[in-house]
Amino acid sequence: MPTVGVAIAIPEPWASRLQDYRTSIGDTTAALIPTHVTLVPPTDFPEPGELSGHLEAVARVNRPFTLHLRGTGTFRPVSPVVFVGVVEGISACERLAAGVRSGPLSQELAFPYHPHVTVAHHLPDPVLDRAFAELADFDCQFDVEAFHLYVHDEVVGWQVTSSYPLGE
């Protein structure tokens, strides 16, 4: 069964900067994961094409918004993750995530939804500490005009299969 995810893609040049950083500190999964803010975590779904109508409807009722990423945070000790924080656009991400996680993608989350960009995951504590310190001054801002459906491929990782422009 295919595994899908729904996310906001981080644009260039910031996407490559964060993905390259993640790779440089030894996160071997980074090359297979485009830089993003998750809306729907990895979910097994039998026919990804059947999600199109649902995702189009959610996109139509949500407006473009500004996303501002700044500084670092961590989910430790609960989860070995360091992330870049969302400081503007949180409520828009929450509304969008709630919309896409309804209908055919309705699900219980293991943790409360917290929009962020992962920059280090499942690495030793000293490496997580390093990522937390080295990206503390990260700052970027951009307009979110769409979100994307990703399908996981065992060889090449997460691939965008569809994009959904937000309503105006």
Give a structural overview.
The chain is α+β, with helices and mostly antiparallel strands and 168 residues long. It has a single domain (3-165), classed as Alpha-Beta Complex (Cyclic Phosphodiesterase, Chain: A). Helix content is 24%, strand content 38%. It has helices spanning 14-24, 52-60, 90-100, 125-134; strands at residues 3-9, 36-44, 65-74, 81-88, 116-121, 139-144, 146-153, 157-165. The protein has a 4-stranded antiparallel β-sheet with strand order 2-1-7-8. The protein has a 4-stranded antiparallel β-sheet with strand order 5-4-3-6, with helices on both faces. The chain is globular and about 45 Å long. The N and C termini lie far apart (35 Å).
Give the helices and strands, then pairings.
Blueprint: E1 3-9, H1 14-24, E2 36-44, H2 52-60, E3 65-74, E4 81-88, H3 90-100, E5 116-121, H4 125-134, E6 139-144, E7 146-153, E8 157-165
Antiparallel strand pairs: 1-2, 1-7, 3-4, 3-6, 4-5, 7-8
Radius of gyration computed on alpha carbons: 15 Å
The CATH homologous superfamily name equals: Cyclic phosphodiesterase
Residue stretches low in confidence (pLDDT < 50, at least 5 long) are none
Query: What structural class do the secondary elements suggest?
Result: alpha+beta
Order of helices and strands: EHEHEEHEHEEE
Integer average pLDDT = 95
- Strand content is 35-45%
CATH architecture: Alpha-Beta Complex
Helix count equals 4
Please summarize what this structure is.
The chain is α+β, with helices and mostly antiparallel strands and 168 residues long. The protein is built from four helices and eight strands, in the order βαβαββαβαβββ. The model has no long low-confidence stretch (mean pLDDT 95).
